[in-house]
C-alpha cells in the first residue's frame, strides 16, 4: 500500500474545517470504538492511583509460528492520554528463547491503520486475516536471532486514536517502563532503543523527544525513525481536497484525533449526513474497511459547516502533534532516513527538524534513498537502521552527519 495514514490525514482535517455542504444533525458527538471483548484490555478501577508505566497485568500468549524462536507475553500497563489522564495500554513482548538477563530491548512501533481495537498489533499478531497482516516478520526475526527482546506497543491507545502522535510516544515509553519492570522478562537494567517508520516513526520520534521529560530514568541508547511526517499542520494547509482512493485513511486520522481532542477538534459536528454515514462505517474498521468506506470521497462532499476554520484550538491540535514544533530535543542519538522525493510527506520539515536537533547537540545520522515510493523507502532503510541500532547496543559512539 502506497499511502500512509498520517500523511493523508491532514488533508481531511483541513477539508473538514473549510468545506461546506448539506447540513447534518447539529453537534454530532465523536464516535469511539467498541470496547475490546477481552477483559484483559479493560482498565482497572484503581488506575488513577498507579504511576505511568506501572504493570497492571501480564498474560502469557500462545506461541506464534512465524516467531519460532520467541515466547510471547502481553503486558497491560498504566499510561497517559493527550489530556494527561490515566489510561490502560498494552504492549506485546517477544522474548528470544536463548534470552540472557540484561540483553537489549527494542521497542518497535509498527504502522497501525485502524479505528477499531482489533487493529492493534497485539490483536493483529493472532488474526490470520489480510486486513490485519503483520508485515515486519522477517525484520523482527533477525533481531530475535541477535538475542534482543522486542516490545510491540499498541501505540494508538485504548480508543484507537489514529493520528495522535504524541500519545503514541507516551505509550511507547510507558511500555518500555513496564517491560523492564517485569522480573520474569529479565529486562531490568537492559539498554533499550526505538524503531519505527511512517506512522510508527511518529510514535518513535515523539518517544525520543519526550523521554528526557517524560521518562528520564529509562536507559535509552538511540532511536531509528524513518519517513516521519514532522509537521502535520503544514501538511494540512498544503494538501488539496480532490476525491482520492485512499481518502478513508485520511478521514480515519481526523476521527482518531477527534477522539483525543473532542473539545478542540469536533470533526463529527462538521459532517453532513453522508459524512456521518461514512464515519459510522469506519468507526471500528482496520485498513481494508477504512479504504473501502472512504474511497473516492473528499472532505468537500462530507462536510457541512466552516465554523472551525477560524478556531485556533483546532489548528493547535495539529501543532501539538508536530515534532518540528516541539521545542525539547532527544537526549539520545538519532538515525533518520527518508526519500528526498517522498510524495506523501514534506521533506523540508524533516530537514528542519534534523537541523534543529543538530544545533542542540543531538547526534543525527540522516540517510537519503532516491525512491519515489514512501513505503518502499522503509524497506530500503531498515538494514542500515538495524545495523545502527546494533552499534548503539554495543556501546559504540554514534556517528553524525550534522
TrEMBL record:
SUPFAM superfamilies referenced in this protein's UniProt entry, alphabetically: alpha/beta-Hydrolases (SSF53474)
Transmembrane helix among keywords: no
Pfam families from the UniProt entry: LIP (PF03583)
Gene3D superfamilies linked to this entry: 1.10.260.130, alpha/beta hydrolase
Keyword Signal appears in the UniProt entry: yes
Keyword annotations of the record: Signal
Domain of life: Bacteria
Signal sequence, start to end: 1-25
InterPro entries found in the cross-reference section: AB_hydrolase_fold, Lipase_secreted
GO biological process: lipid catabolic process
Coiled coil start-end: none
GO-annotated molecular function: triacylglycerol lipase activity
PANTHER family, alphabetized: LIPASE 5 (PTHR34853:SF1), PTHR34853
UniProt protein name: Secretory lipase
Taxonomy of the source species: Bacteria, Bacillati, Actinomycetota, Actinomycetes, Mycobacteriales
Amino acid at each position: 500500500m502506497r499511502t500512509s495514514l498520517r500523511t493523508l490525514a491532514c488533508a481531511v482535517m483541513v477539508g473538514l474545517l473549510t468545506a461546506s455542504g448539506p447540513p447534518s444533525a447539529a453537534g454530532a458527538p465523536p464516535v469511539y470504538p467498541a470496547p475490546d471483548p477481552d477483559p484483559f484490555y479493560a482498565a482497572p478501577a484503581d488506575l488513577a492511583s498507579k504511576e505511568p508505566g506501572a504493570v497492571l497485568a501480564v498474560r502469557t500468549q500462545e506461541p506464534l509460528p512465524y516467531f519460532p524462536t520467541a515466547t510471547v507475553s502481553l503486558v497491560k500497563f498504566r499510561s497517559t492520554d493527550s489530556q494527561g489522564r490515566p489510561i490502560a495500554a498494552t504492549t506485546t513482548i517477544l522474548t528470544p528463547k536463548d534470552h540472557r538477563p540484561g540483553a537489549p530491548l527494542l521497542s518497535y512501533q509498527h504502522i497501525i491503520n485502524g479505528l477499531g481495537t482489533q487493529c492493534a498489533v497485539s490483536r493483529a499478531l493472532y488474526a490470520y486475516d489480510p486486513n490485519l497482516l503483520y508485515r515486519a516478520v522477517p525484520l523482527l526475526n533477525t533481531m530475535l536471532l541477535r538475542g534482543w527482546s522486542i516490545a510491540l506497543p499498541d501505540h494508538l491507545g485504548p480508543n484507537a486514536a489514529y493520528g495522535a502522535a504524541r500519545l503514541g510516544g507516551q505509550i511507547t515509553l510507558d511500555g518500555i517502563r513496564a517491560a523492564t519492570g517485569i522480573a520474569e522478562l529479565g529486562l531490568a537494567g537492559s539498554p533499550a532503543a526505538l524503531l519505527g517508520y511512517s506512522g510508527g516513526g511518529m510514535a518513535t520520534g515523539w518517544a525520543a523527544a519526550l523521554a528526557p521529560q517524560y521518562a528520564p530514568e529509562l536507559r535509552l541508547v538511540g532511536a531509528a525513525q524513518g519517513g516521519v511526517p514532522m509537521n502535520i499542520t503544514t501538511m494540512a494547509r498544503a494538501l488539496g481536497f480532490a476525491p482520492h482512493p485512499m481518502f478513508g485513511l485520511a478521514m480515519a486520522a481526523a476521527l482518531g484525533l477527534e477522539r483525543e481532542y473532542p473539545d478542540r477538534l469536533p470533526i463529527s459536528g462538521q459532517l453532513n449526513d453522508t459524512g456521518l454515514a461514512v464515519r459510522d462505517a469506519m468507526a471500528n474498521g482496520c485498513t481494508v474497511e477504512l479504504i473501502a468506506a472512504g474511497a473516492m470521497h473528499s472532505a468537500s462532499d462530507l462536510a457541512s459547516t466552516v465554523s472551525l476554520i477560524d478556531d485556533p484550538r483546532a489548528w493547535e491540535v495539529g501543532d501539538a502533534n508536530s515534532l518540528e514544533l516541539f521545542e525539547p530535543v532527544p537526549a539520545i542519538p538519532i538515525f533518520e532516513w527518508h526519500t528526498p522525493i517522498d510524495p506523501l510527506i514534506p521533506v523540508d520539515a524533516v530537514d528542519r527538524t534534523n537541523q534543529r536537533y543538530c544545533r542542540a547537540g543531538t547526534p543525527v545520522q540522516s540517510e537519503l534513498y532516491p525512491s519515489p515510493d514512501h513505503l518502499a523507502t522503509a524497506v530500503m532503510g531498515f538494514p542500515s537502521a538495524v545495523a545502527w541500532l546494533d552499534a548503539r547496543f554495543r556501546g559504540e559512539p554514534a556517528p553524525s552527519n550534522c
